[in-house]
Write a structure and sequence with these properties.
Structural class: alpha+beta
Strand content: 5-15%
Mean pLDDT: 86
Radius of gyration: 29 Å
Shape: globular
Helix content: 40-55%
Number of helices: 36
Low-confidence stretches: 210-216, 570-576, 682-687
Largest sheet: 7 strands, antiparallel
Number of strands: 17
Number of domains: 5
């Protein structure tokens, strides 16, 4: 047996050979959770290549190989005893990249095929460089040969489509990746340890030893041990004087964060948190690791700890202006910006700048974050931008001016005033950022009115409210009819404007406003202490004209509040919204469809320009899944590249879209604008969840929320539905679960929570929303479950879906296994339906606890 470090290219590239997955191996089973992590690692490596920095390659794991009994001198065959999941995943990633390049770079398509995926002159199963286990072989062959339909294929097909959708997103103008560098990262930056066994070696024993796991030390633990190993003579003194106060002041995670920040401030702008220990070791190798240098490092860490403590606990900051900015950054949850904040506080401690300069720099930082959120600039490059600041800050300007200049540079994408105005009118603000960030923006806009008796936002129990409600009744749609232009329907006008900033406000009476007509809402808003609400109440009606006018007013205030980039330096590239549309289409799961109006509402456009864009954009993934609002293929539909792929409805049926007897696609399989937006983000529920507690105060708070939930339930649902929910909650507690309650101050939802013994994690299958004027609903949180074991396995989530679909009135399509579909409370009114639900929940509990 011999072990050696290798890369995928060295294993697969160029040679006629084959890696065979034995029959006894499990089938391919990587889930989106593992794929997401791998994709982030691939992009990290692509960034390093783009910046011409070697950095640390990513260690992917081991591959244990043994000679196949069928091997030949001219055609080596290897059995993959361990590592099949990694090899299969990387091969599918290269397959997706090959197909992504097919139209624009045919030579690259052919090269990737021949170098990594196929044995060109072989036939049958020998054609494939990697031969999966029999259960996956047929699906894998379809994707390698390019004979697949674009749907199906089990986990193999889902993984292929995962990489296809991520490659579309990788061409986002805001953070574009060179596809050649992505290929290079996959082939040469994913490090493997290849263990090659002779035919008589006990490969299973090798497999067991490689897969033994234990409690891993954190990066902070490893680095601490390394440091004190070097302090042979003064270890106790240094520990008592400097290290113990650090350990007492910070959690292990925060201490690790501080150590990482120190590396960044000292010039390592590419280090990752997971590489902290290795990077600091390397740094000591460069500067020497004698006792004096280690002591100097620990003293500097101790000094900078004061700045980090101010970031984590802004109330400790002495200067009022800086303190207010730190509070706001904390409210924004701007941890990615910590290197910049630490740099400014560090400069102040050295006497090079004063507190006013720090506050000005932090105002630019806040503006950079807020304006990007308003214009929906992706956040995935923020870490890279902020880590680079300490090493790139101009020396010929003050730190605040230097930061503004640096953040205004090309490809930093700090939106201009014109872009803020445009996106405030058209962007779906309610679906941007986190809920705390949306509330933050509205609070700051309210403060800009400088009311003589301002609201204390720390005490006020305010939530974000839609003036025109999310669910528009007949009165609202009738009012919107006069706002229709360019062939739009009232429903399309509503979808286009309902989530824009001009239609949103803050209120403490969310549940009372609900879906009421505007005349009723005016009375409640007029009595508000918020100036923005009084101004809304001063209008006669509320439609498209009023929403857009208010958007313009709020945009002007936003521009005054949050400084602009340096003029003429930065410009967000036009056409970004089309990129978002492309990403949404690429992410459409099998068996789903959407409409021109849904896509238009997603990007703040109207349906006609969307149709024109689809007709004029060749090679657009899943463009044929865009149908009219009644689920039919548009009369003017044609393939943009001129290549006729046959009857569109037949193609859709082959992809799992069902059609009704009248010829329309099944409505339950349609993804609306909100669901499309959900495909492009991964997030936890909008509300934090409280639980019963032994603390009297916490228990009283939970009880208050429970009473509020039941009150809202009774106000908006018939007694039979209320009784069914009570029975459901009682059942859940009887089988070992507990009822979590959302922390919303006016609108409270219930979550069926379950503790996982031996861990601090909880899991929940369903959320219950009592209703806001349109009846309650039960939400199935597939999106949450997709990152919780064992339901990271799509087959388990699908079994949950199928069990729920046995309830009369519940029809959840397979394509929504990554979303949060819901069904109305009335389906629980039938005793048979409740019995099926209870049986399903007991099944869920058993599987959830089985992995602990």
């Amino acid at each position: 047996m011999k072990a050696s470090e290798t890369i995928l290219a060295d294993l697969l590239q160029g040679r006629t050979q084959q890696y065979q997955i034995p029959l006894y191996q499990r089938t391919y089973s990587w889930t989106d959770r593992q794929l997401d992590q791998l994709w982030r690692d691939i992009l990290d490596q692509a960034r390093l290549l783009a910046e011409r920095k070697n950095g640390t390659t990513h260690f992917l794991g081991s591959v244990v190989l043994a000679p196949s009994p069928m091997t030949e001198p001219t055609f080596p065959r290897w059995l993959v005893v361990d590592g099949q999941q990694r090899l299969t995943t990387l091969s599918l990633a290269l397959t997706a990249l090959r197909d992504h390049l097919a139209a624009t770079d045919p030579e690259a398509h052919e090269r990737i095929d021949e170098e990594y995926l196929i044995n060109k002159r072989k036939q049958g199963e020998d054609y494939f460089r990697l031969l999966p286990t029999q259960a996956d072989r047929a699906h894998y062959a379809e994707y390698i040969r390019g004979t697949h339909t674009g749907s199906g294929g089990g986990r193999v097909g889902e993984t292929y489509r995962f990489f296809r959708s991520r490659l579309v997103k990788a061409e986002d103008p805001a953070d574009r990746y060179d596809l050649a560098l992505i290929e290079q990262a996959i082939a040469s930056r994913m490090t493997l340890v290849a263990v090659s066994a002779e035919k008589d070696d006990n490969v299973h024993r090798i497999f067991e030893s490689l897969n033994n796991t234990g409690l891993k030390l954190s990066q902070a633990d490893l680095l601490r041990n390394y440091l004190f190993m070097k302090l042979r003579q003064r270890a106790q003194e240094v520990y008592d004087t400097y290290w113990l106060p650090l350990q007492e002041a910070f959690s292990n995670e925060d201490l690790e964060h501080l150590m990482w920040l120190q590396l960044v401030l000292d010039g390592d702008d590419r280090v990752r948190r997971q590489d902290l220990y290795t990077a600091q070791q390397h740094r000591f190798t460069e500067i020497g690791a004698d006792e004096d240098s280690v002591l100097a490092y620990i003293k500097e860490l101790h000094r900078r700890a004061e700045h980090f403590a101010s970031i984590l606990h802004p109330e400790r900051e002495q200067d009022r202006g800086v303190r207010e900015h730190l509070h706001r950054l904390q409210e924004w949850q701007a941890s990615a910006a910590y290197p910049v904040v630490m740099l400014m506080l560090d400069e102040r401690s050295k006497g090079t700048i004063d507190s006013a300069e720090v506050a000005r720099a932090l105002s630019y930082l806040e503006s950079f974050l807020v304006r990007r959120m308003l214009c929906w600039i992706p956040t995935n490059n923020l870490n890279r931008i902020f880590q680079a600041v300490p090493g790139q800050l101009p020396v010929d300007l003050s730190p605040a001016d230097g930061l503004r200049q640096l953040l205004s540079a090309p490809r930093r994408f700090w939106p201009t005033d014109d872009e803020v105005r445009q996106h405030t009118r058209t962007g779906r603000f309610y679906e941007r950022g986190r809920i705390n960030q949306r509330r933050f923006v509205l609070q700051r806009l309210e403060q800009s009115y400088e009311h003589p008796e301002p609201v204390d936002f720390t005490q006020a129990k305010l939530t974000v409210e839609h003036v025109m409600p999310q669910s528009a009744g007949p009165e609202w749609l009738a009012a919107l009819a006069q706002d229709c232009t360019d062939g739009e329907t009232p429903e399309e006008v509503h979808a286009r404007l309902v989530h824009t900033l001009g239609n949103l406000t803050l209120t403490a009476v969310n549940s009372q406003l609900s879906n009421n007509p505007f005349d009723r809402k005016k009375d409640l808003l007029h009595a508000s202490h918020l100036e923005m609400n009084r101004r809304i109440a001063g209008t006669d009606r509320w439609g498209a004209t009023e929403i857009l006018a208010r958007a313009d007013e709020l945009a002007d205030r936003a521009i005054d509040l949050w400084p602009s980039p340096v003029e003429g330096v930065s410009r967000v590239e036009r056409g970004r919204d089309w990129g978002q549309l492309h990403q949404a289409l690429a992410a459409l799961p099998d068996g789903t469809w959407t409409t021109y109006g849904d896509l238009a509402a997603l990007i703040g456009s109207s349906a006609r320009p969307v149709g024109t864009h689809l007709l004029g954009t060749p090679d657009l993934l899943n463009a044929h899944r865009v149908l009219t609002s009644d689920g039919r293929v548009a009369e003017g539909f044609r393939w943009a590249d001129g290549h006729d792929r046959g009857d569109v409805q037949a193609l859709l049926e082959g992809e799992g879209v069902e059609f009704t007897a009248t010829g329309g696609a099944l409505p339950s399989q349609r993804l609306d604008a909100e669901e499309l937006a959900a495909l492009l983000r991964q997030e936890e529920p909008e509300q934090e969840i409280t639980r019963p507690s032994l603390s009297p105060a916490a228990r009283a708070s939970w009880q208050e929320r429970l009473e509020r939930f039941h009150g809202q339930l009774a106000a908006d649902n018939p007694e039979a539905h209320v009784a069914a929910v009570r029975e459901l909650l009682d059942f859940w507690e009887a089988v070992g679960g507990w009822v979590g309650l959302g922390t919303g101050h006016t609108y409270t939802s219930a979550f069926l929570n379950l503790d996982r013994p031996g861990t601090q994690a909880t899991i929940w299958p369903l959320s219950i929303f009592p209703g806001t004027g349109r009846g309650g609903a039960v939400e199935v949180v597939f999106q949450h479950l997709a990152s919780r074991e064992p339901f990271t396995d799509p087959s388990l989530r699908d079994e949950l879906r199928q069990r729920l679909n046995r309830i009369e009135g519940v029809t959840i399509p397979h394509g929504k296994l990554a979303l949060r579909p819901h069904f109305p409370l009335p389906v629980l009114a039938a005793e048979e339906g409740r019995a099926t639900l209870f049986e399903t929940l007991a099944w869920f509990r058993d599987h959830a606890l089985r992995t602990t």
